[in-house]
Design goal:
This protein has 95 residues and is an all-alpha fold. It contains 3 helices and no strands.
């Protein structure tokens, strides 16, 4: 699975590379009132950065994920580190 823009979807559809089942079921018809309580939720903002990594670090994540998902795995490790640091700081502040 990969992310694509609307323009890319339209190109894929036009070229026949995107399969659309003509017999697929439509979703339910929604009444106009469905949107009465709708709230717009902004997606989290993700900042794109460029990192210089030691070769052994980069290759470790590549090998661990089989070449796909290594960036996501790095992100997860960094998130876990941040969470641990916040917990450590909260514990130190509390006691």
């Amino acid at each position: 699975m990969r992310r694509v823009s609307l323009e890319e979807v339209l190109v894929l559809k036009a070229s026949g590379e995107l399969y659309v089942n003509p017999d697929g079921k439509d979703g339910p018809d929604l009444p106009d009132s469905f949107w009465d309580n709708a709230v717009w939720v902004d997606p989290p903002k993700i900042r794109s950065v460029h990192l210089k990594l030691d070769p052994e670090v980069f290759h470790h994540f590549l090998q661990e994920t089989g070449g796909k998902g290594h960036i996501t795995r790095m992100q997860n490790v960094l998130k876990a580190y941040v969470a641990a640091q916040k917990a450590r700081a909260a514990k130190a502040k509390a006691g």
